[in-house]
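User: Sequence recovery, please. Input:
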């Protein structure tokens, strides 16, 4: 099924007239753009159902989002689960009524009149800047646009014979073209994400191109709930998010800290072997640093407020210096580069840091470790010449492939080259951009990876490569970014002395393989459902004595394994052996070692692996060698079906 079309570079409704010479491409329902359009259309149907069932309810914005859609409402009373059932029932009726979507171009005055009773729409119409940031807002050369779907005679609801909203579109031709949907939950959300504004009711839903696709997604969602890293982190005693700390901030319990240390040790060792040099930088910096870098100009909303220090002896406010918690490590590494003169002979200079940053994410988007306010990045910055750029970019891509393999992912599921946005919005020279894009493209070509080009999706300060992986239940996660930066070298006046003695500006490459250690831990936790590979597991083996008389030998087994650099402990609890086995199965310990009279006499162990067949009478030294080899090879090992 085709739901809309691309005409040249624009997505349009199927009834849009086409001029001679224009290039038309269909948008299938099962494409990313097709699902976007279906979800946006379904969001309109949901808002219509709400206003039909709850007359007088004002509505805010209702964009499609990844895997679904939402709409914000201002009802007289908060919505209940029973209300969601009613709303979904009314949506089914609207879909069956085959109501056509009609696009209207209106003036500002006409739009204000159409939504005169809705303060949220009036605010969007009168606030041009806000409208530009709102994907559902009506902006463009043609003026303000409204989408209206006409109700049949006798349809439910009060008011005129149509429902309408501000919208850019496109939409499916009629409501009957919406194949499959369901509502999922209701939550609170501040208007425009600002806690100073009124709290609205946000209803989330999902829509797909077929009932089969919807069923598969809901099954995946159910599995995702079981694997939620916040749930598993609590159950396995790995991490927690105490209220006293504040939203978006975690504490790492000993078992979680062990896994995190393994990840960090892996990265530290890997960057050393690849010629990176370590760096440590402070957690705060003076406002002058962030003014020079441009962060206070373009990223202030994502930064924590300043701390005024070093005030005059009078203590009068405003006489001191503002310090900001760092949202990024980049300017600090730039200062290291700039600390002395540099020669082309020193390049490339690769700086690496596990640097903790602090970003003030809005409360509505915080999600455990996946979207936090404090986290540690595996951050690296490479300063190089133009001639070195291809090799450095390729090395970053190959580094990422090694990381994915070692942590048990089947390589990248999507690789994208993002190119220059509109020139007026970017820094750097035409020549610099052309060289950087060409270098990234050549690096990807040499890597042998399939990739797509996301035209115009680069940052204002440079093009980039993004790499995603797919987890065990089919979800894509953005991990690696290799980003060229023209902004910071210009702002900080970075140079090196070229072979001819002239000063030249180096290319600067931002490189994060994991994205952040915290988020990567969360991705791994959900990918493995808490059953980390043996090399990452907090406890690689637990020794379970059959009775107290076997405690001494159990301690000998654990000591022997620890002596080989392995993580082992003895369960000295008073539970029965059966209960101990069930407990450690639930804690997803890779190996349980049962020891009794025979094992103590023969210096063996009976092995109950997390997955796979049991083995009895295995010599202790043999098992220790096997376990050490498994850990050293970073073998993922058997996984549950």
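Assistant: Recovered sequence (641 residues):
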């Amino acid at each position: 099924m085709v739901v809309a079309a691309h005409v040249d570079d624009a997505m349009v409704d199927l009834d849009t007239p086409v001029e001679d010479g224009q290039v038309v491409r269909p948008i299938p329902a099962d494409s990313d753009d097709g699902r976007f359009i279906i979800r946006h259309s379904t969001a309109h149907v949901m808002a219509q159902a709400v206003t039909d069932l709850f007359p007088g309810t004002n509505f805010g914005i209702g964009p499609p989002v990844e895997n679904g859609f939402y709409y914000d409402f201002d009802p007289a009373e908060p919505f209940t689960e029973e209300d969601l059932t009613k709303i979904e029932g009314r949506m089914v009726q609207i879909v069956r009524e085959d109501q056509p979507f009609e696009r209207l171009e209106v003036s500002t005055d006409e739009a204000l009149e159409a939504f005169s009773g809705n303060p949220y729409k009036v605010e969007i119409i009168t606030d041009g800047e806000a409208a530009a940031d709102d994907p559902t807002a009506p902006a463009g050369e043609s003026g303000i646009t409204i989408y209206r779907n006409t109700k049949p005679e006798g349809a439910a609801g009060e008011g005129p014979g149509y429902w309408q909203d501000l919208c850019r579109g496109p939409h499916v031709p009629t409501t009957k073209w919406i194949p499959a949907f369901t509502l999922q939950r209701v939550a609170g959300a501040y208007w425009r994400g600002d806690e100073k504004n009124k709290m609205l009711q946000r209803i989330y839903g999902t829509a797909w191109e077929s009932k089969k696709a919807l069923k598969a997604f809901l099954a995946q969602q159910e599995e995702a709930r079981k694997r939620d890293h916040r749930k598993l982190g609590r159950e396995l005693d790995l991490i927690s998010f105490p209220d006293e700390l504040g939203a978006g901030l975690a504490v790492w319990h000993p078992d979680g800290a062990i896994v995190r240390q393994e990840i960090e040790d892996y990265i530290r060792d890997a960057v050393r072997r690849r010629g990176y040099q370590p760096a440590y930088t402070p957690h705060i910096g003076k406002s002058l640093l962030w003014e020079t870098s441009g962060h206070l100009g373009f990223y202030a909303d994502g930064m924590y407020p300043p701390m005024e220090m070093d005030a005059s002896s009078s203590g009068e406010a405003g006489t001191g210096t503002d310090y900001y918690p760092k949202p990024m490590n980049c300017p600090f590494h730039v200062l290291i580069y700039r600390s002395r003169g540099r020669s082309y002979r020193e390049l490339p200079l690769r700086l690496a840091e596990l640097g903790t940053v602090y970003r003030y994410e809005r409360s509505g988007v915080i999600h455990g470790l996946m979207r936090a306010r404090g986290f540690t990045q595996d951050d690296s910055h490479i300063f190089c010449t133009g001639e070195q750029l291809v090799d450095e970019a390729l090395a970053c891509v190959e580094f990422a492939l090694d990381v994915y393999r070692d942590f048990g992912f089947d390589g990248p599921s999507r690789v994208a080259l993002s190119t220059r946005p509109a020139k007026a919005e970017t820094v750097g020279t035409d020549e610099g951009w052309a060289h950087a894009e060409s270098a990234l493209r050549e690096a990807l070509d040499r890597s042998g990876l399939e990739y797509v080009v996301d035209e115009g999706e680069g940052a204002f300060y440079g093009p980039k490569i993004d790499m995603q992986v797919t987890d065990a239940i089919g979800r894509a996660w953005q991990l690696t970014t290799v980003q060229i930066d023209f902004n910071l070298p210009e702002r900080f006046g970075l140079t090196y002395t070229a072979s001819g003695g002239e000063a030249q500006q180096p290319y600067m490459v931002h490189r994060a393989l994991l994205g952040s250690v915290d988020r990567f831990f969360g991705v791994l936790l959900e990918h493995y459902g808490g059953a980390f590979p043996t090399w990452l597991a907090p406890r690689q083996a637990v020794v379970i004595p059959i009775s107290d008389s076997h405690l001494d030998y159990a301690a000998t087994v654990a000591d022997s394994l620890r002596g080989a650099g392995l993580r082992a402990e003895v369960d000295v609890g008073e539970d029965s052996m059966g209960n101990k086995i069930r407990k450690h199965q639930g804690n997803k310990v890779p190996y349980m070692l049962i020891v009794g009279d025979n094992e103590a006499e023969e210096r063996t162990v009976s092995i109950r692996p997390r997955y796979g067949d049991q083995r009895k009478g295995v010599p202790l030294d043999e098992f220790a060698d096997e376990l050490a080899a498994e850990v050293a090879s970073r073998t993922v090992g058997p996984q549950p079906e």
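The chain is about 35% helix and 25% strand.
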